[in-house]
Description:
Residues 14-160 form the DDH domain. InterPro entries: DDH_dom, DHH_sf, Oligoribo/pAp-PDE_c-di-AMP_PDE. It comes from Candidatus Iainarchaeum sp. This is DHH family phosphoesterase. By secondary structure, the protein is of the alpha/beta class. 40% of the residues lie in helices and 19% in strands. It has 13 helices and 13 strands. The strands form two sheets. Strands 11-12-10-9-8-7-13 form a seven-stranded mixed beta sheet. It has a six-stranded parallel beta sheet with strand order 3-2-1-4-5-6. A hairpin with a 2-residue loop joins strand 7 (216-220) and strand 8 (223-229). Manganese (II) ion binds next to helix 2.
Amino acid sequence: MNPSAFLSTLGGKKVLLLTHAGADVDSFCSAAALYFAFRFHADLTIGVPEHINLSAKALARNLGIPFILSPENLDEFDRAIAVDFNSFDMLGGMAPALKAFKKPILVIDHHSDGRERISVKALRVIDPACVSTCELVYRLLSRKHKHLNAEVAVLLAAGIIVDSAGFTVASPETFTIMSRVLEKSGKTLPEIVSLFKVKADVSEKIAVLKAARRARIYKSDERILVSTDVGAFEASAASSMIRLGADVAFAGGESKGHLMVSGRANNHLVVKTGFDLDQHVFKGIAQEFGGYGGGHPAAAGYNLSVAGNLSVAGSPDGKTIEKVLERCIQLTHAYFKEKSRGLGSQLIEYP
Ligand SMILES: [Mn+2]
């Protein structure tokens, strides 16, 4: 079976559309686009492991798209489609359930191909050159005209806008696809953006400002690295540090046995140096502390929880975050040091 045959034989089947843990807009929209393309032919369920991010949640609410958090009983499904991830570690606590699922799985993803294989080669549509998974979903759906209705087009456009960071990392194909889906959607670009816009509330603004106050500032050659401790809104805090002038920023927090770190890097730096938060920092962090990391060169995240954590380093204990953030900075510095063949200067922390 190939991907086209997989999709054209969905009729009458019970199908799970599965995002990665903590689904973002690209992942959720990929699943939702498939939902709106096939919902009159098949019995479809959108499953989101563990939690959904605020933007994706807003979009689901605005468009009335049903989804289930951490679905149980995968046995009842005949097939699964995994979107925006290709390794079990991006499923968090749902990894064992999908590992036990022995029926056909179609994987559609734009992350680099992981070590683990969650499906057979013929059913893995993986292209890391793609800016968003929604573009890959477009490629598959555009083969049959009837699948590309206005609802599908709106969702694909939203996923592309978010994962291209507002078209700052777009490829020529991104614009070709965007042009087609925008036309088909019958909406304007601002209307689509408003579907997933989350207004920063007071607590988020305070968290970000506190993150700035607590920032530890380092210099690695001419680059500014920043780490900071936050109670919530890690991603927002890390992005804010980049806007304030950091080249690489990590914002992390720890509560109730769960630790998470968001990393952000300046896009120009990533393009110029090949630095990749996921590959050069969070992979190493996951090896040292357990847990799982994932994402993209300029935007990635790391999670460590007590449940399902088999790390040697142990579970978070309220002090782990300090060590993890320090290692993030050290690994970032180590990458640039190696790039300069050891000629780079020492890592300096500003008092
Ligand atoms: Mn994505």
